[in-house]
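for the writeup, i need someone to sanity check this before i put it in the appendix. the sequnce is what the collaborator sent (i think, or maybe the updated version? ugh). structure was predicted straight from it, no edits. if anything looks off just tell me and ill rerun, i have time this weekend
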Amino acid sequence: MATSIAARISRKAAASAFSAHRHVISSRGFVTEAAKTISPSSDRVKWDYRGQRKVIPLGQWVPKVAVDAYVAPNVVLAGQVTVSDGASVWNGCVLRGDLNKITVGFCSNVQERCVIHAAWSSPTGLPAETTIERFVTIGAYSLLRSCTIEPECIIGQHSILMEGSLVETHSILEAGSVVPPGRRIPTGELWAGNPVRFVRALTHEETLEIPKLAVAINDLSKEHFSEFLPNSTAYLEVEKFKKSLGITI
């Protein structure tokens, strides 16, 4: 009796071992066949998705960056975006000009994690482009959409400027300010709050400090700029000029 039970157990063990061995062989064969079937062809385009695209052309629109402008490596510029001479766009910013133009003027700066966009049209009838003129400082984490900022202004951190809003020259918005659509901030004034309210008029000395801040940030950007190879779109103009002359080199 014990001998027959031991024999049955040994036969079952042998059968299970054989089936496991056969499963391993078949799985190895499946892996081999799968590797053969998914192997890429030699003429397949090899895309590299490890890096973030910094400049994104949209149709005929290619972002333009001046030779001496500083744009951080992880900034995204898409579509109708122009970064002028001496301007700087810092880490994590997104400038999306897919619907309308975005301009960052001479010696202006857009600090970390700002988002700038432009709508097709403004409900107020004002220009829908987003224009940042010269010597303007945009504080970190701000949101700008279809607004105009005249020369020598400061926009505090975490501020929001909605469609059609206008910040006139020599004005300051405190941190966290929210400018509703179509709101005008008169020249030489300090505004704050949600929605923004008039606080007081700026002194002459305070207005003189506004461009100095922009220049100081421009000087700081040169230290960062020296760590990277020059990156601009000036070569596109050179290539266009060569084509107009019939030069193929």
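The radius of gyration is 30 Å. Confidence is low (pLDDT under 50) at residues 20-38, 43-50.
thx in advance!!
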